[in-house]
Amino acid sequence: MKTYTTLDAIGDMFVIYGIVIVVSMLVAVVIRGIVWVLSRQAKQEEAKAPAKPAAPPILAGVPQEHLAVITAAVAAMMGAHRIVHIETMTRGFGWTAEARTVHHTSHAPRASH
Fold first, then answer.
1. How many Å apart are CA 95 and CA 97, to the nearest integer?
2. For residues 106 and 12, what is the distance between their CA atoms, to the nearest angstrom?
3. CA gap 12, 26 in Å, rounded
4. Most buried among 5, 60, 85, 88, using CB within 10 Å?
């Protein structure tokens, strides 16, 4: 019966490393193929989508009557001004930034008493 020598172990290690390299290359090729197919589908969907006409930025979703009332209110309160941007109020990130700041400052080292 043949004994298992160090040379046999080194040979087996090279075989195992070779198998791992081949499997990892196959996985990389499959991932590359998936990315390629998905990018082609996205390009085809972009080509099929019709271009939307751009609305004037100041009138996007704001009725003319509201715009006139806002302009009159600004003129009455502050004098002659030009309104640059109007949009609907959405939930902003201000409250999350405030909470994050409070949380981070709670970890600040305190002065010894």
1. 5
2. 56
3. 21
4. 60
Assign 5 a pLDDT band (cuts: 50, 70, 90): very high
Do 71 and 58 meet the contact criterion of CB atoms below 8 Å apart? Answer: no
Q: What's the token pair of residue 9?
A: 């172990």
Return the domain boundaries, the chain: 1-51, 57-106
59/88 Cα distance (integer angstroms): 11
Q: Which residues of 34-72 are buried (b: 16+ CB within 10 A; e: fewer)?
A: eeeeeeeeeeeeeeeeeeeeeeeeeeeeeeeeeeeeeee
30-49: per-residue pLDDT in tens? 999 999 999 888 888 777 76
Whole-angstrom Cα distance, residue 8 to residue 20? 18
